[in-house]
């Protein structure tokens, strides 16, 4: 063969594989593309079946419209889509996909089999594809209306990528679950169920929704009822009418709609109740305030705003294996990482994806932090670049520190101490709920009405 240093064109098949690896970047994108196709096909029931966390098999089955026989050949060809025909259609796209790249890329990267039964067909068909997206086997296959796409051995056609994929499978899997959860939440009226089977073991549930009619039910199904309660400070904020309606709340239920923060400075302290609550009065309205919850929220917000976490230097700088995009997000938000105790050395001359090395991690007695917290920050910062934020585990740490610092239930308070707690409520961002979501204050009665 020719010497290696001769510049030659890469053969077409390899080019297609390499480019496909840029469409389907990860397990998460593979699952996302398949689920989107099912949603686009009008499915109300989607089953995602994984074997060995998706390295062995990813299979997405739906009860959507199915694929018509005349579209079999086009299914997996690059830039073939049923969703747009010319440029003007782009304006009216109402589906997730329209580039016609996902299935063609999956064929290039794995072994793809599709079984489908179109709504107008009497019997289903099973199709096997080669890596160029050509049909190699086609046979009648009994099944109900809908489509099942099976992707086996993802990335095995790109050996280096395949090795990376298997090495990083825990991370890939965690990201995929996050993406799937997001689709579960936004897909009202669609039942999504995902299972994973390791080896010959039992199938274990990963995520499932009952196809509820609203976001609240879907969030409940994905995160569990218990977490839902605490998710409701966060979802409630900022509360608009649409969110209220979605959650079955009346806008009058929300304290921030009824009250303003200026009111706290004007409140008159009446006294303490049951060694746990402050009774305060404003004009003719009486309020009861949870002394622990409100102090906890104040301390929490102060920690969130002002704490610069101490970093501990690593003995050996650590490579992070970031994607090019994530690496840029990190470099552009270094200050925020530093405030969270993460520090890096940046080598501008190194190749993209290799420019950043971790040199310092935040430390705290009972908490250890690592690359997953960096990933989370990158995730948040890609949404809101430049906006101060904390990894959720730092928030948790602050919440538990705030709790320990705060006035306990059962502690007698002087009027001055109560005054201070109530004044603090007017000084913070969100005095209405404690960091765990419990309300800090309730209106007891209007004296006018008594
Ligand atoms: P795109 O979604 O961008 O059109 P894809 O490669 O993801 O491209 O899919 C190609 C085509 O295959 C789609 O336009 C659609 O017509 C068909 N298709 C893919 N998945 C399904 C499915 N689950 N049910 C019905 N049709 C499907
Ligand atoms: Mg698609």
UniProtKB/TrEMBL annotation:
- List the record's Gene Ontology CC terms alphabetically: MutLalpha complex
Q: Which PROSITE patterns match?
A: DNA_MISMATCH_REPAIR_1
Which UniProt keyword terms apply here? DNA damage
> What Gene Ontology molecular-function terms does this entry list?
ATP binding; ATP hydrolysis activity; ATP-dependent DNA damage sensor activity; mismatched DNA binding
InterPro entries to which the protein is assigned, alphabetical? DNA_mismatch_repair_CS, HATPase_C_sf, MutL/Mlh/PMS, MutL/Mlh/Pms-like, MutL_C, MutL_C_dimsub, MutL_C_regsub, MutL_C_sf
Ranges for domain MutL C-terminal dimerisation come to 269-413
Q: Which Pfam families match?
A: HATPase_c_3, MutL_C
Is this entry keyworded Electron transport? Answer: no
The Gene Ontology biological process terms listed for this entry are: mismatch repair; somatic hypermutation of immunoglobulin genes
Give the family per the record: Belongs to the DNA mismatch repair MutL/HexB family.
Q: Which PANTHER family match?
A: DNA MISMATCH REPAIR PROTEIN MLH, PMS, MUTL, MISMATCH REPAIR ENDONUCLEASE PMS2
Q: What is this protein called?
A: PMS1 homolog 2, mismatch repair system component
The species is: Pavo cristatus (Indian peafowl)
